[in-house]
Structure formats: C-alpha cells, structure tokens
Write a structure and sequence with these properties.
Elements (H helix, E strand, L loop, with lengths): L6 H11 L14 H15 L2
Helix pairs in contact: 1-2
Keywords: Membrane, Transmembrane, Transmembrane helix
C-alpha cells in the first residue's frame, strides 16, 4: 500500500484524535516503518 504524500501530517492529526490511547510519548522513539504502521492502524480505527 502506498502512503499519501502528507501522511505524516495526517498521523499527527490522528494521534491528537486518539490521544487517550497513550501513543504520543512513544512517537519520538519510533522508526519510520513503525510510524507508517501506526498511521495505517489509526486510519483504520478512524474509518477513513
């Protein structure tokens, strides 16, 4: 699956939306692959 051009911006919005999951403190230590996986997971949760 190809990620959209601005997926990092969308990830930021999704992490704000799902802040109650406790993901935000871990973002700084994640690799790009992990961030992409998180983006896809949160996107599916949001129903987008």
């Amino acid at each position: 699956m190809k990620l959209p051009r601005d997926w990092l911006k969308e990830l930021e919005l999704l992490t704000w939306r799902f802040a109650g999951m406790g993901i935000t403190p871990d973002l700084a230590s994640m690799t790009m692959v992990e961030l992409a996986g998180l983006y896809l997971y949160l996107r599916r949760l949001s129903g987008a």
